[in-house]
Structure formats: C-alpha cells, structure tokens
C-alpha cells in the first residue's frame, strides 16, 4: 500500500502530464475568484448607473421636442331621434360637439446651443446640459375643406398653439410664443391626452389671419441630459446644433447633412434637413396627435468608455493572463527541473486576481491609466519577489516580470482600441502562441 502511494507521489512530482493536469485544474479553480471580481465590477457599474440616473432625473432627463402645433377647434353635428309617447311621434334634436384639428407648420427651423457641464455625487459623475433652443417658422393658411370641415364650423376665437416635450421639468424659462404680432403665454395642461404639453392662450382675432401664412417664433431654455432630439413636423424641417461636448453620437432616423458635421476636442456642430417626402405622416391630424417619436433625430452626448467599462473589458482577459502566467511558470519548472508546489501556483494566481480588485478600487478615485499602472506595478513587484523566493537566481524572476509586464501592456493597448481591437488581439495571441511553441520545442516530453 505504501509503495503504491509512493509511486503516485513520484508520478505527480516527476510526470509532465501530471504537472500539466494539476496546473490546468488550478487554473479552473482560480476562475472562481475571477468571476467574483467580474460580479463586483458589474455591481459597481450598476450602482454608478443608478446614481447617474438619479442625478439626471433631478437636473432634467432626455429631451424630445415636437412643435409648435396649431390646435384648431371645430364643430360637428349629430342628430338624435327620440320617440314622444304623448304625441306618438319622433322628434329630432341636433347636438353640437367640439373636436380638434392639429395643423403642423409648413416651415420649421430649430437652432440649439447645448452647453454641457459635469455633475458629481460622491465618486460618480454625470454630464448634463442646458440647451438654448430657438424655434421659428410659419403655419399655412387654414383650409380644412379637404377634411370635410367647413370654415364656418371652425371656432376661430379658440385656436391655440401646442408644444410637446418629454421633459417639462427641465424648462428653465417662462415660454412665450410669438404668432404674427402677438406674444402668447404658454402653460402646461393637466390632461392625460396632453401629457408633457404646454399650450398657449387663445390667439386673438385669428379669423383675420386664417387666409394668411402665419409666422411664429419661440425661445426655450431647457435642462437635460444625454439626449436632445427633435421631431420633424414641418413640411420642411431644418435644425442646427452646436455644443462644447466633444463626444457626440448622432442618433435617430435622420443623420446630419453631408459636410455639416464638425467635431473637435472643443465641441461639435451639425445641421439636418428633413422634408415631408422623407417621412411618412401628413400635416394635419384630427382627434389627437399620434406618437411620432419613431421619426425623431438629434444627438446623444455620449460619455467615452468609463472606468467600469474599461475594467470589465480588462477582466475579460483575466483567464488569458492567469493561464499564460501559470504556463510560464510551468515551462520554467519543466526547463529548470525546479519543483513548484501547487500551493505556490495558487498564490501566484490569487495575486493575478488581486490586480483587478486593485484596478477597480483605485480607478474610482483616479484616472483609469493611473489605476492600471499602480495595479500592474504592485502585482508585478509581488509576483517577481515571490518568484525570487521559489526560483533560483534572477534569470527566471526577470523573465516572469518581463512576460507579465508585456502582457499587461498588450491588454491595455487592446482596451484602448475600438475598431482594431479584434485585429490587434488576434495578432498578439498569434505571436504569443508562436513564442510558447518556440520555447517548448526543446522540452523532453518523454517523461509521462
């Protein structure tokens, strides 16, 4: 029995296959703490999103602007027949109802200047903005005969103007709309049908303007975050946007016109032009205004890849880092005939896992680059000093340090890339495989 145990111990100690199996098993075991680290990064990232959403909700959320829109009331008539029991005859009564037509402008021009600034809460940061939006254009002369609405049925003294926005809370001025020579105050409506809508007072003597093109203008100052978008309700809609934000993403159904986009480190500018033929809805609606958000366009003020995203991308390479480092130690063990205990492999692997906890904790209080350098130097120093204790001389510890430093440098380059990350990563892994194959070619694999 003792002889059998001794043979097993000798096989484990001297067999290359046994050593490879043990290292492979330890690699799988080390994936458990690595997975906990990934969960920690996800948890911190989720917490960041919660705080950012809270900051944004108090400052002002995404903005989608639609308007101005003419709200034109008109009369409809229905007949009601009632049977009179006394006279034994039917009587007819005409009932008058009020309905609404919503008329979109012929020309709509939107000019917006978006001034961004950071807001901090504890260690978390969000980017919000204040948009100065100037809207002008003109409405067509009112003629609803094609919709079977007679001019005499229109209630001309009850015509008003609507502006719809997704963010009433963010409006920072008292808006007034200029209609011709009139300046009309606008107030919100407490009505589910007109949710997130401000409406003007009635346009005075509108009947005198009904056969004319009616110019309008309105200035809005709105606090928002992340998105600023418009709905092209004009028969011809033009929009321009300028900002001091350096990382825009042009979002929605329509892109800016060719040649109008200019993006620098100091900000961006862009302009759009959308014609009625480019979108699939008419200029007049009856009863209510449909949801037209599928036609929106504008800009998303994106935050460049943040620390948590970078840490998450770095952790995805954790298996490769741990696997290749343990492989380096295994090759050193096979070449030098130095015995490395499985416990020592575990300590090296845990040190490699600690890199990611250091990275995420330091990056919350500093830049990702500084956090990456500090975490990498700390882990490198720890592993090199530990290698010096278990490996003879300085040659192998220096080799381990150089290999690990090259690996960390390679991963940092990959996570900074976007379009070429896969290409550079594939080439790098190909080179690493070639080095391993070249290094292991002279190892005597005969010891089973």
UniProtKB/TrEMBL annotation:
Annotated TM spans: 20-37, 317-336, 343-362, 368-386, 398-415, 421-439
Entry annotated with the keyword Nucleotidyltransferase: no
Keyword Cytoplasm assigned: no
Keywords noted in UniProt: Membrane, Transmembrane, Transmembrane helix
Cross-referenced PANTHER family: INNER MEMBRANE PROTEIN CRED (PTHR30092)
Protein name, entry field: Cell envelope integrity protein CreD
